[in-house]
Amino acid sequence: MQGGCELKKIRPNSRVYCRFYTLDTDLSCLRWEPSKKDAERARLDVSSIREVRTGKSTETFLHNGPLLEHLAEEAAFSIIHGDEYQSLDLVALSADVANIWVTGLRYLLAHPSIIGGAGGGCGGIGGGPSDGGSLAVEGSLGSKMRSEWLAAEFAQVDEDGYGIVSEDVAVATVCKLCPGIKEAKVRLRFKEIQRSKEKLTSHVTREEFQEAYCELCTRPDVYFLLVQLSQDRECLDPQDLRLFLETEQGLSLATTEGCWELLKRYEPSAQGRERGLLGLDGFARYLQSPECQLLDPEHLGVCQDMNLPLSHYYISTSYRSYLLDDQVHGRADLGGLIKALQSGCRCLELGVTDGPEGEPLLGVDYGPDISRHHHHHHHHHHAPVTIRSALEVVNKYAFLTSQYPLLLYLCHRCTPGQQRTMAHHLKKVFGSRLYKPEALHVSLGGRATTLPSPEQLKGRILIVGKKLPPEEEGSDGEVSEEEEEIGGGGPLAGRRMTIPGEEELGVVLVVPPPSQPRKLSLHKELSDLVAIIRTSSRSFYAQRGSFKQSQQQSPPSSPSSPGSPIPPETPYWTMCSLGEGEAGRLTSESPEDLVMFTKRTLTRVRPSSVRLDSSNPNPQGYWKGGVQLVALNQQTPGAMLDLHRGRFSQNGGCGYVLRPAVMRDEVSYFSAHTHGCVPGVPPQTLRIKVISAHNLPKPQGSGAKGEVIDPYVVLELHGVPADCAEQRTRTAAQNQDEPMFDETFEFEVNMPELALLRFVVLDDDYIGDDFIGQYSVAFECLQPGYRNVPLLGLAGDPLPHTSLFVHVAITNRRGGGKAQRRGLSVRRVGRRGREYVSLRHTGIKALDEVFKQASAPLKEATDLREAAQCSTASFKDQCGLPTVAKLKQCIQSLATRLQSPEGAMGASMVLREGYPCLEPLVSLSEATRKLLSAYDTMITAQKQLIENADGVQERIDQVHREGMDLHEDLSRLCEKEGLKGRKLNKAVESFTWNITVLKGQSDLLRGAKMDSLDALRQLALACEACGLTSSTSTSANSFSTAELHYSSHPTSGRRSSSHGNGRV
């Protein structure tokens, strides 16, 4: 800072000037040149600086947002100075340079005593491993704690007490204190130190040990964050840590006692633990701990409702995971089954073939039209796996990872005799765990309406397969056999298939067409064990065909559109199995029909038969269509399996994840290919700052490249088409294993329940095998704040001590539309420019009269929500903070402006009708009065929302109830209006749209009220913590009453907008 650097100065008229800024040697003022002003005017006294803000948060940036979009947010900062809180808005050449200026200026503000003294008072600010200095400021409390701790650690290995240890001992000690650091890197640093001192010995002194540790193990990103939080001591006390947890980590219920526990758990120094202080190393350990991982700890256990029918869940499904190699030459191995079960799979496919001596074998059967000679020729030297041994493995590992039901998907063409043997094995091995088909009816009191729930079926194994019709008598019978498909082009028989990658060799597989429809002989003993009947796509088309036929005769109660009930011709105990290509066509051509079909019928998608290499399709394409079971080759690593693991890492990894509500509600509107907002689902904005990566390994197979890698990070968002996006950081050239990125990315998420986020770290310079690590997580599992992202290898195994460090912010979680840009645009949106949700005209007079009643309450609901949202955004803007900031941060900023030099506050909080209001106590500046006015406007908007939400919501719910009552008479109403064909479909689609909107808007208003109550509680607590209460204005008793008032509205059953309302 004293050496100076070039910064871009931004003027209110959006002009950009390049200036060279320096800090005087006595630390008293900033100077810049060139300037039209004389030298004495081109300066800013450090003593006049009020605060230093990061990012584009001042009026200058907000007014000229579109003109300054090319300037990086991470490199921008503003210096607020003078009694009128003027701003000097600057943009550095990089985020690192901005961090140095922000950290240094904040340090000077926290240490006013050193201003005007010698330049050496700033110690090593900004110094780091790159320039041979330590990041820690010498003389600070945190620095002293660290020095004493390292001295104590060195003394433990200095057995002779001479103050020196061998290089090997010093290297081992550093590696123990800093897990994940490479031994070669530490050894090289010691040798460099010895070489610089021209030492002839390899022994290490205590000072050299401390120097090497501080240079190698100090994380600049954590240091800059710690300085911002601790201000002057470079360590955190329980109050500092609690403030960090509340304002950054989203833990609004953090307690001081819990913070003490964290301090004792992660602080390595004895002095820090005794005094309740968390130093740099302890803070780094905490940020790298499981408590700060990206995945919400709530999802480490089962946290979703498990009492709904099986069809309401996505189910983790395996496809021939017992094959070691490809689908043609692969031999069966029990290890694949074990791994699939240990990973949480709840549906296993077992292929069974006839074996010698009447014992069925585990394997792949290609049907009677494909010779198996080629298959057996390639692995006849390996011992075959009997189905009994496979069942014993399944029984052993079935419920070690998850207690919820296991579906065993049987594929076989065995002779009746071997089927009977298989049935005996199933009963003998599984015993009471085997769920008998008749129990399905008994568990539901004989009512065949829906499938049982996972909770009802805990610890049970259900067989999925072919079943003889009830009229079949005797021990044997025949059932039609569904033909396998290749891609999306129809049955396998009579088609030519080119093996992928071998087109130039002309390798094809030709399957002769059958002379007649295939029949499968089925033994009754095996048939009786089947609990869920396997069907083909014919059940889907039959249902849709019955709808069309009924439309021609008379209008049904619910035709082929969202919200239609399943006809009785499709039994609820069936599982529809679709080929990859056919399922893709259905999600593209009939997305609404498929979602409706899956509301009560289990549907499974298997990989295409052309995937001889056991590769996997993209499961997201089928999940968005409502398909519950997307079968993947669990033995084949890659991006598709990563997404699968990300989806099922939630809900405790139990293998069952609730589908979105729009896929479960009886009447709802949803299309898998929606390109806009989903009715009733609030879109959200995800903002991720990729800060750094740590302990990155070299890509596999890159041994010849050397030690240097050039990493970059790709962020992929998977979901509905409107949500799919991909962004990447710049390449950290030759930055080895500890790159710094400091780049922020923003994603719009229209369907949060379906969205998946995938981080991929790649080596930019490596050709062919550039994969380093990845991590996939469901959007609903993201935690806000500073988080570590543990990276996984290609096979899904954790990479030791390897992670990304990111900051996550999720906004507009309860809003009624897309999040707007920060700035004046948020405040200027009035009622005229506001977009109101509208209901569709159905063409049915009785329905339209009912839905017409919702127009006024829907408009009022939008006004209430938007007023609260916009007033809160305006208050944050006035405080100079981004929309992702917490209200406690805003009160802190407000308190700083209200505090006089003597420490007295210029305003005090009082409770008016239970709401925390601020009353001025002295004459305030114009800028401060504007800020208090914005606060009053926010409180008024929150009050209006809280007091009117219930009445408006009840009016919306009343219209919803009346609409659902008429749903039962929909067939008669359509017939009365003479609606047929396209008009009929349009009417029903409009009806389901309206019902979905009404339910969604009611939920949004309920959530907005809960958020407002939580906001008032945060404001009251923040005012007390910042000294804005007094004995005369607010007694302890009245505050307790206020707190009780705010918390008297339970928030159970919903996720707070703070997205992390946990208790520490």
TrEMBL record:
SUPFAM superfamilies: C2 domain (Calcium/lipid-binding domain, CaLB), EF-hand, PH domain-like, PLC-like phosphodiesterases. Its main location: cytoplasm. It catalyses: a 1,2-diacyl-sn-glycero-3-phospho-(1D-myo-inositol-4,5-bisphosphate) + H2O = 1D-myo-inositol 1,4,5-trisphosphate + a 1,2-diacyl-sn-glycerol + H(+). One of its GO terms (molecular function) is phosphatidylinositol-4,5-bisphosphate phospholipase C activity. It comes from Fundulus heteroclitus (Killifish). Keywords: Cytoplasm, Hydrolase, Lipid degradation, Lipid metabolism, Transducer. GO terms for cellular component: cytoplasm. The lineage of its organism: Eukaryota, Metazoa, Chordata, Craniata, Vertebrata. This is Phosphoinositide phospholipase C. Its EC number is 3.1.4.11. The keyword Nucleotide-binding does not apply.
